[in-house]
Design goal:
By secondary structure, the protein is an all-alpha fold. The protein contains 19 helices and no strands.
Length: about 450
């Protein structure tokens, strides 16, 4: 086999698929994408296609990431008891397992392109940074159209987005820019699940891209907050900022520790100001889970299927099976409503949703909830064990690795798309090695 020429932008025509996948990373909410629970991405399927087109490299990639390649088969085996007990629902099952394959395709594509084919990663980074600036510009255009009442622009995005938030009549809280994302709350997934880790990976390789990524992240987050895109970006930005402060501070050096303490105090002040200035955060702080309708919905959307696990205790081990989230929800609906009622929460909305949800419309908005309910403690435990073992064997337990891992765990609490890029990027980044600021906490 001919050895790849180092640092060429394109080795063959299949690399155009990779370029398209990178260029479409922010476009995960348009009608042009393929439906997955609560988002319509394009890039995961292009990454999967790219891996198939370059299948001659897959044996080497398999050798480097062997446990993860076995995960889809293991999840199918774990699903068999649930399929036998509750039924086999083809569309929902495919959405679930294809999501896992999409994440695996993302992992394989990164390794094929950069490690095996040795494509010019700087050119790829240039494309990635440019498309996220375009996504930000789209959000600005949406915000201006909303506030200047430019109806033709609002109507365009109303029909372009699969689940639109631009029109003021949107049932999900309209009058907000959503950029090209499935919903405004996914901003943090991209900024802190993709761009921030890439910035960490660039350290020691290219300071120019470190600076460019930092400028993009800060500008995007600040503009999203100022344009009122949503409450979650405020919370995500505060969490990410606190993690960044911890990650970059040398706590055993007095001068650095002093700067770190001051920075953490600043984060605390920003958090307090957010509670005062953001009505939704303030309401949650004062009234708890019922203080905000969206926050409350995220709780009861997960509570129903989780109670379904307790209704059939054996499912705690193997889950309800891929695609059977709705079965778990129906089983746990009555118990979930009773719990919500005991906390003086509204039950009409949750009860109606539990009763009406189908296998094709079910979602939890939490990857950890969905994965646990579908594949049980065994499935979730296998995934966590694979990731933790991989981190320990490749990067080691230095501070940057720990901070990155914590950030990824946090982000998936309110995002359930298995095919998203944050987790495969973490796995691949640990294999490639990242330059940490310090080895001790």
């Amino acid at each position: 086999m001919t050895m790849p020429v180092p640092f060429r932008f394109l080795q063959d025509r299949s690399d155009l698929v990779l370029v398209a996948a990178i260029a479409l990373l922010p476009a995960d909410g348009t009608v042009l994408g393929i439906y997955a629970p609560f988002w319509t991405p394009i890039s995961p399927w292009l990454f999967l296609l790219y891996a198939v087109l370059n299948r001659r490299y897959l044996p080497t990639v398999y050798h480097r990431f062997r446990p993860f390649f076995w995960l889809p088969a293991l999840l199918m085996v774990l699903s068999i008891p649930g399929w036998i007990a509750f039924g086999f629902h083809t569309v929902a099952m495919l959405e679930s397992l294809l999501g896992v394959l999409g994440a695996l395709g993302c992992l394989a594509s990164q390794d094929i392109a950069v490690t095996r084919k040795q494509l010019d990663w700087r050119r790829l980074m240039h494309i990635l940074i440019a498309v996220y600036w375009v996504a930000l510009a789209v959000g600005v255009v949406q915000w201006l159209a909303i506030h200047l009442d430019v109806k033709c622009v609002v109507e365009y995005f109303k029909h372009l987005m699969a689940r639109q938030y631009v029109d003021s009549d949107s049932p999900w809280g309209g009058g907000r820019p959503q950029f090209l994302f499935a919903e405004p709350s996914y901003i943090g997934m991209h900024l802190f699940g993709v761009l921030l880790p890439l910035m960490w990976m660039m350290r020691g390789h290219d300071t120019v891209y470190v600076r460019r990524l930092r400028e993009l992240i800060v500008t995007f987050a600040a503009m999203a907050v100022l344009m009122g895109a949503g409450t979650r970006i405020v919370l995500d930005a505060l969490v990410a900022l606190a993690i960044v402060v911890v990650e970059r501070t040398h706590w055993r050096e007095f001068a650095s520790r002093k700067r770190g303490v001051v920075a953490m105090f600043g984060v605390t002040v920003l958090g307090a100001l957010s509670l005062l200035l953001d009505n939704r955060l303030g309401s949650i702080a004062q009234e708890g889970m019922t203080g905000d309708g969206s926050f409350y919905a995220r709780i009861w959307q997960s509570l129903g299927p989780l109670m379904g696990l307790l209704r059939h205790p054996w499912t705690l081990l193997t889950g309800y099976g891929a695609g059977n989230l709705a079965d778990a929800t129906h089983a746990g609906a009555a118990d979930a409503v009773d719990i919500l009622e005991s906390f003086d929460g509204g039950t009409a909305g949750p009860a109606g949703w539990y009763a009406g949800v189908t296998h094709e419309t079910m979602f939890t908005m939490s990857a950890w909830t969905s994965f646990l309910v579908e594949f049980g403690i065994i499935g979730l435990g296998l995934l966590c064990a694979m990731v933790l073992r991989h981190v320990a064997r490749t990067a080691g337990w230095h501070k940057t690795a720990i901070c990155w891992l914590i950030l990824v765990v946090y982000l998936y609490i309110q995002f359930e798309g298995y095919a998203f890029y944050a987790l495969p990027l973490l796995v691949w980044g640990m294999q490639r090695g990242i330059k940490q600021t310090t080895y001790t906490c």
